[in-house]
Amino acid sequence: MRPRWNREKVLAHDEKLPLPWERLAARLIDQAFILLVAGVILAIGLIIENSSVSVLGFVTYLVASPIYEIACTARWGQTLGKRIKHLRVVDVDSGQLPGVMQSILRWMVYVLAFWVAYSVVLNRTHRGPHDRLAHTVVVYSD
Question: What's the distance, CA 43 to chain centroid?
Answer without folding.
Answer: 26
